[in-house]
Amino acid sequence: MTVSHTPPPAWLAIAVKTWFRVRHGGAWPPPSDGPVVFVANHLSLIDAPLIALLAGRRCLVAMHAHPPQHGIAGWLWRRAGVERLDVNDPHQLRDFLHRVRAGESAIVFPEARMSRHGALMKVYPEAAKLVRSTRAPVVPVHLEGTELSVWSPEKAGQPRRWRPRVHVEIGAPRPLAAEGESQGATGNVLGDLLEETRFRALSRWSSVPAVLAETARRLGGGLRVIEDPLGNALTFRRIFIAAAALGERLRRRTDPAEIVGVLLPGVATVPAVLCALWREGRVPALLNPTLGPGPARGALGVAGIRRVLSSRAFVEQADLGPMIRRFEEDGIELIWTEDLRAEIGTGRRLLAALASLRQRRIPRETPAVVLFTSGTEGAPKAVLLSHANLLANVAQLRARTDVAPADRVLTALPLFHALGLTGGLLFPLVCGARTLIYPTPLHYKVIPELAYAHQATIIFGTDTFLAGWGRRADPHDFASVRAAIAGAEPVKPSTRTLWIDRFGVRIIEGYGATEAAPVLALNTPTCDRFGTVGQFLPGIETRLEQVPGIPGARLWVRGPNVMLGYMRADRPGVLEPLTDGWYDTGDAVSITPDGFVTLEGRIKRFAKIGGEMVSLAAVERLAAQTWPEASVAAIALPDARKGERIVLAVVGTQPRRAALQERARAEGLGELLLPAEIVALDEIPLLASGKTNYPELTRRLTEVAQAQAS
Predict the structure, then answer these.
(1) This prediction's pTM
(2) Is 417 labeled as catalytic in the residue annotation?
(3) Which single residue of 22, 146, 162, 227 could bond 17 by disulfide (Cβ 3.0 to 4.6 Å)?
(4) Per residue in 222-269, pLDDT tens?
(5) Which residues contact 464 (CB under 8 A, 6 or more apart)?
(6) Which CATH number fits domain 610-709: 3.30.470.20, 3.40.50.300, 2.30.300.10, 3.30.300.30?
(7) Active site residue: 5, 24, 42, 98, which one?
């Protein structure tokens, strides 16, 4: 039996496009003649006829399961001219290959089953081998919306509809791979194609408010998406109404395109504040309340900030009076949220409800937020991220992970921390996952209780915070967690062991930078390699630059999530764009042939001892393995004889140099990794993100060395 080259009925294609309100993007239209294989994600029973009708071609479908025989789905299969061939049958497989090579089109679902959550699942190497054997160009297809149809398996937290909106993203035709590639490698190539196409589809919106509005439309504006322990609980509808009301007030007090400082705690109302500023074309600069008055004022100067939005209640509770007085002395205007709320009466609320029904158009490259680098190695810089940067990083995370509306997210990372903003807030909101936000990660006893009460399935943290929460938690507290996502600093083996042994939870480690909005690489539960930070997210280009004497290579990155540029103290408020979009991470990395990234250390965090380059991060890893329960940090101080010497600070144990030597010998490590001096401290200074404050530690240890010398 052969399939006719006559296209499916035009009237049916028009009817289906109209009924599902189909929108398409990418390399449209798909090839109209010649052999081609459409490789697509699989969400519902109507995916195959939908692809065939949109392509205007009758298609062979390689699949194991039998197609629907009855109902609307069965009727669509018959009228769209799609024919299922069981490629497990040698005769049908031979027929399939012959007909595609002869010029017919085919559809292959590499996952071999419908997705349980809407995200990509396992990509079978056999599917890649089949596609390659056709010798036909491959067109990757990403479907979105059919997972909400009544022809899709029911999923927790997602409504099912007869008429969902559908988006179809088409990639450009390309050959899959060379004949000599192995099945495993080709399987990864096929998965990468689908992931890249999914990323492009998920980053198509113009602004953060626009993608939030789309999520609200898909899942319902009345969906409660964020709450906090103070009793604030907001739906998408309430966020948009509050944003419209606050935005109207802020428009009168600020200037167009102005950078406005935001000094607020991490509570459920913050998304409304951010959306209010974005709605009116203002740029929020998220300030760190843990800074002293001087550094905080310095941050305002770097970004050219003249007005700060804050809360009197928060200022009193967090004891920020000295900071506020410093602002006022320097002529900074304070805008209080309490005053704004008092100005919004019933009439303005009604007008805001009407105004919220229409989102304002915001160009993608419009500045969206100012964040400040952590300052682990010197003075902080202001980082300007656009809506395109934030959208790209959220889309990259969605393309790589399977976070869904059924998930419950707990985030306690501060919002002035890039991972707290993008990973802990924007990412779950865009996914429609219910989020519990808490203003500080330092309440080590409270966070586990919140996870237990919220039944959190996803939690964000750093090694420091995850270790602190884990030590104080009951095994039941994190029993519901399926992924603990860590960034900002390397995860110690002792922290991994703690979470595995006590909670049965594997920590998923990633890597990023504030300048990249922030995630660059990420392990996942199904693609995780111990000792690495995972593989680079889709859309990220890399460049490696060898540095003499340092293992690995200096990493440069470019991609849609990489910042617009810096603002520095010597040119306040002036954007310093990147050259050709490339950002120097300052990190030394090694990359395996299959793409897993290992951090070798910061380029600046290498000590030069007698002409040899020694990684301070490697010294810290050795010390952490020697004393798993201790906190450790290594720095380099000047040395008259060898150029530099390594000083190791240890908290929580009485360190013995002999123990460090024994561990180094057991690991086969050289004597160069042994510090010249080990100092026991009461505490290691930390930044608000949980990272070690190396400038402050260097100052303290320098004072200790000077005191000893005198």
Answers:
(1) 0.85
(2) no
(3) 22
(4) 999 999 998 889 999 999 999 999 999 999 999 999 999 999 999 999
(5) 489, 686, 690, 691
(6) 3.30.300.30
(7) 42
